[in-house]
Structures are given as C-alpha cells and as structure tokens.
C-alpha cells in the first residue's frame, strides 16, 4: 500500500479537491480555498514529491492519480469535484479517467491534455540545484542564490514558499532530483478515453499552455466541455486575478 498524501480539510458541504502544480504545495490554491470553504468542503493536497507528502523516484500521472484516489477512499467521499492547476490539472484529468463515476465536475486551470515538447523550467532547475549545492544558512541567502538563475521575483517568491530550515541549512521540501529525472514525464501525456464529466478549462489569456490548436485533443478526451479565457493573465491566473477565476468557478459549480 502506498503512503497517504498530506492534506488539509476546510469547510463543509460537497467536497472539492484542489491540486497544485509543479514546485507547488497545498497552499498554492489558498486564495481559492479561502473563498470556496464558505460553501464547500475544500480538501487541499500536497502531491507526491511536494510539500509534506512522501518522496518517490517515480512521478507519473497514473501514480499521482492513484495517490489521490487512495485519499478519496480514505476520506470515504461518495462524489467530489476536482480543481487542478498546471501539472495538477493533468493529475485531475487522469483521476477523472480512472474514477469518473465519482467525479462530479472537473475544472482545469491553464493546462491542456497534451504532451508538451518544449522544456520550460531549465533556469528553475538550475536555481534549485544551486541552492542544494550551496546549502544557504538563511532564507535570504537562498533567495539570493536563486536570483543568479531566475530573473522574475514572483517566481523566486513562489519557490521560496517550499524552502525550510533542515537544521543547519535551508533546503527544498520538494524532491528536486525526482522532478528533474521525471521532467519529461511531467511534460508528457497519454490521451485518456473520452469522459462525459462536466468539464471547464480556464485559460490565462496571455499563456501558451492552452491554445486553439489544442481544441481537437481536448474534445477527443472530454465530451462535455466548456472553456473560459481570463484576459490579461498568464499561467498563474488564479494568483493574478483570483476574484475573476472564482467567479467563473462558482458559476460552473452552480
């Protein structure tokens, strides 16, 4: 039996599971959780190799989906809704393929059910590895090491949320080595058998993760699907325009 994912439950009502993306943790969709917990039971998870969940040298969508379904069984959920961002969106789609009888609704934030062929995180991995090798003794020092590799302050701050003091130095909660070795698995995707779960794709208007050319592949895998574009946002749409994203999510959930 595999280990149980680390998770947090807030609120009461129909269960909604929130799934973060690559290099994230269960706090990443916190802006959504804080709003939705007023009307729903919100379950935020740390995926394997992230946050305070277990680490593994394997990191495939099938395994991540099985991890989540094991948690659903442990919590004895009869039905539930999934909201996933980026890599978490792919995990949500894979769960839907396996457990579609229980998944009431699926909401995917800025991710397509396709294999991506372009490496997007080389500078991030270089920064993460530099922190591992330099063993900084303060958070400030760790962020300075990151700054040699990652220009955008917002990206450094996001990654910094997964730094912790291991005793004599600061290091990462996520499993850098496994994520690096499995990176092409994370970019990859095996198309699923078409599901009829009510599905909403929310796209950041300025992001290239979900584009018009993906429409055919989306419709081949999801027969009951809608899409909504949040203008003037990138891949981190839920952080950039949380109130707009929440409005679209709540309308879909109704």
Plain-language structure description:
About 40% of the residues lie in helices and about 20% in strands. A 7-stranded mixed β-sheet has the order 1-3-2-4-5-8-9, with helices on both faces. A two-stranded antiparallel sheet has the order 6-7. The chain starts with 6 loop residues before the first strand and ends with a helix. It folds into 2 domains: about 5-115 and about 190-254, Alpha/Beta hydrolase fold, catalytic domain (Rossmann fold), CATH 3.40.50; about 120-180, no CATH class. By secondary structure, it is of the alpha/beta class. The chain is globular. The mean pLDDT is about 95. Strand 2 (about 15-20), helix 1 and strand 3 form a beta-alpha-beta unit. About 40% of the residues are buried. It is built from 11 helices and 9 strands. It has helices spanning about 30-35, 60-75, 85-100, 120-135, 140-145, 155-160, 175-180, 185, 215-220, 235-240, 240-254; strands spanning about 5-10, 15-20, 40-45, 80-85, 105-110, 165, 170, 200-205, 225-230.
Quick overview of this protein structure:
The protein is an alpha/beta fold.
Can you tag this structure with a few keywords?
alpha/beta; two-stranded antiparallel ribbon; 11 helices; 38% helix
